[in-house]
Every structure is written in C-alpha cells, then in structure tokens.
Amino acid sequence: MPARPPGPEDHHGQPDDGRRPNPGGVTDAALPAPLWRALERHPAPGARALQRGWRSPLRGPWLTSVFGLVLLALLPVVIITGLLDYAAYGPQFGQAFPHDVGWLRLPPFDWPTRPSWLFRLTQGLHVGLGIVLIPVVLAKLWSVIPKLFDWPPARSVAQVLERLSLLLLVGGILFQIATGVLNIQYSYLFGFDFYTAHYFGAWIFTAALVAHVALKLPRLVSALRSRPPREVRHTSRAATRPEPADPDGLVSAQPGPATMSRRAAVALVGGGSLLLAALTVGQSLDGPLRRTALLLPRGQDPGEGPNGFPINRSAAAAGIQPDATGPSWQLTLTGAGRTIHVDRAALLAMAQHTARLPIACVEGWSTLQTWTGVRLRDLAALAGVPDPASAHVESLERTGLFRQATLQANQVLDRDSLLALRVNGVDLSLDHGFPARIIVPALPGVHCTKWVARIEFRGGDDE
C-alpha cells in the first residue's frame, strides 16, 4: 500500500501529535511539557509567519554541511593566524593589546625574525581570509536561519544549552567580522577599544565553535555522504527537489519551487568569495595591482618614486614638527651606563647595510622595499652592549599607541635589522620616518618605529 502523501496537518506525513523532531536526541520530558506547550500556544509576534516564510527547497543538511565544511577547514586558519599576530607584538613586554588577558595569555616565546615574510603571511592570511569567508558565513547563516527563529525555542535542557552556544557562535562571528572590517576601513567608531574586544571576542567565538563542531560533526559527515557531488553537479534547477525531512528541521515544511539549483547556489557563494579575494589581494602586491585593493583604502595611491609605498600614519597626523627632524636632530643611544648622541651625518658615515625586507601592517596590507642603514647590532656595540637582551625604541612622536616599542634580542641582533636612513636608494621621506626608522625582519609594521629619537639597549641585568 503506497505511503500517504504529506498533508497540511503535519510536517513530515505523520499525524500532528504535538511532538517535533528533537535535535540532540533528548526527549521532550527533559523540560516540563506544560512549559514548552504553553510557549507553543503563545508564539512570539510573527513567529508563525516567519516559519511559514522559509520555503526554499535548497535548505537542508547537505547544503548547510557544504558551507560548514568550508568554514571548518578555513576558520581555524583565521583564528590561529590572529593569535600568532598577537604574539608577534611581544606581549611579554606589555606592548600587545590588550595588555592584561589573565589566563587567556599565550605561552611566552620570542617571535622569530625568519622567514622575513612571516608576519606578512600571518597578518595577510588573517585579514584576507577573513574577508573572503564573509559570503560563506552569510550563506551558512541563510541555510540555518529558520532554526534561529524556531518556536518554541527549546524543549529540553540540552536544546537550551545548544541555543545558547549558537547565540555565542552566530553573535561572535558577526561581531568579529563587523569590527574587523570597520577596523581595516579605519572607521574607529566602536565606542570601545577594538583590540581588547577583538581579542576576547575571538576566544568566545572559538569556544562556541569548538562546542558546535563537537555537537554537529557526525551530522555534517552523514549529510555530505547523503548526496554525491556528481549528482549535485548534474541536477538542474528544474530537477531540484527538497531533501528528506531531517531531525534538525532544516528542510522546509512547505517548500516552494526552486529558483536555482544547489550547484548554482554553491557557485554563487564561491563567486562572491572570489570577487572579494580579487578586491583584497592587491593589498600585498606592489605596483598597479595595489589600486585594486578597494576594500583596504589606505595606500591604494601611495604616490610615485622610491618613497611611493603605503603608510598608516603621516608625519602631520603624528604631530611631527619639521624643526625636530632638521639638521639639529640627534639620535640618543644609551646602554652600559653611557649615553651617546649621534647626528644623521655620523650615522651615514658608519658601515651601511642594505636589505630587501617587507613591512606589514595590522590592517592587512604589506609591501616589499629595499632599505639601507646601520645595523642595530652595530649601534648596540657602540652603546657598550654588544650582546643586548632587548632594545627600547622611542619616537619623536609624543602621542599614540605605537610611539615606542621594545625589541627582543634576536630582533636586535639579526643581520638585517636596521636603523634605516634610506629606502630604494634615496633618503626616507618625512612620512616614511625621516631622519631614521626601525626595520626588522618579520616585525609588525607599527613596531618598525618611525622618526626615531632614542634607543636604549638593555643587557640581561637591566630587564
């Protein structure tokens, strides 16, 4: 006898006895039945209309799992590179933001100087991949949005906990994306410290992601196995049908006609990510392609000539007065109980070293230039500290988060770590740090201090 076709009285061809598929396998008795039944009889305003409005036949475990698999593979890269970038700022010196993270502090280690493009890679991946994944995140949310408005919201303690984790997961990723995108647009309109909020927000999101993966990974695997990729590739829009009813309730109860195939939906999201990649990748490319980085406004048109590469903060914005960088400028070196003052002419008379090194910014852009100047280790020897444990660099700039920086021993002693005086064969421009700036392999750009006024070389006993 053929099965009875689904009728309007129920969702899945079964009599409506008031019970619904229960995610997590926990019985309705886990919460008092009168409680959730009362909620069901008195829905939130618009709840029933919303439930009836989600009619796309594409929604279901398979499509949700495809987007989930992409995020599962790439979000850990965004998280790990973000934590590595925090470590690159030298939290052991109290110069990473936020300063005090309590038990969320990372294991201490010295950030390496090799490969010289390490920070360029980690920060570029963190920002670039975060942007590229935006369409995938939005598509994943679209695929599960009916569940976010499910009513009653939960019928068991397990479901209450699951929905709380989903609140942290969805809220966390949207918060991280929104604040991150605003930050790279230089829109400091948060009303709170971006670095602190982004750091703690990342940990909250990561914890919610781990809990969600632990709960949903078996269903992701089974959903992907339920529909072979070849079948999806060869199914047209006209032949697209809803998936079978699932225990999570992702499949629409009253699906409408398909407006595109699943293949087209995946291609649409992938195309959106490729478009964002094309509008972002120029941030790390010198030359004309830098102007294609439309999502990262700083430095799209940095000017011409040897000093024609991006900056974050101009001399005018930093309050650098022209007379402070004129002929009277002197660099103060301290260490081993001595203080030495050297002017620019004396620095130019010292042994010069040239290195081709990248400089990378926290907002994601980077550039590769040829720098010439005095090795920091030579200056340390001049100050009487040939084997420094660290060096504290101060700028002529009087205000700002990054007017000073502390360098590790390996950063001071690296063969290519420089007090740069020239770039690409000419003197530094004022905006690029004239009369002198720090350049260290793999160092975050904000710690490559510009308009250097003082360097204190510290031995092990001075720490």
From TrEMBL:
SUPFAM superfamilies annotated for this entry? Answer: Oxidoreductase molybdopterin-binding domain, Transmembrane di-heme cytochromes
User: Record's Pfam families?
Assistant: Oxidored_molyb
| Iron in keyword set | no
Q: Where is the signal peptide?
A: none
Gene Ontology molecular-function annotations? oxidoreductase activity
Enumerate the InterPro entries for this protein.
Di-haem_cyt_TM, Mopterin_OxRdtase_euk, OxRdtase_Mopterin-bd_dom, OxRdtase_Mopterin-bd_sf
Q: Where is the composition biased (Basic and acidic residues)?
A: 7-20
The segment(s) forming the Oxidoreductase molybdopterin-binding domain are: 326-458
Could you list this entry's UniProt keywords, alphabetically sorted. Answer: Membrane, Transmembrane, Transmembrane helix
The record lists the membrane-crossing segments as 62-84, 125-145, 166-186, 198-217, 264-282
- Tell me the superkingdom of the source: Bacteria
GO terms, biological process: respiratory electron transport chain
Which parts of this chain are annotated as the region Disordered?
A: 1-27, 231-256
Write out the GO cellular component annotations.
membrane
Q: Which PANTHER family match?
A: BLL0505 PROTEIN, PROTEIN-METHIONINE-SULFOXIDE REDUCTASE
Which protein is depicted? Sulfoxide reductase catalytic subunit YedY
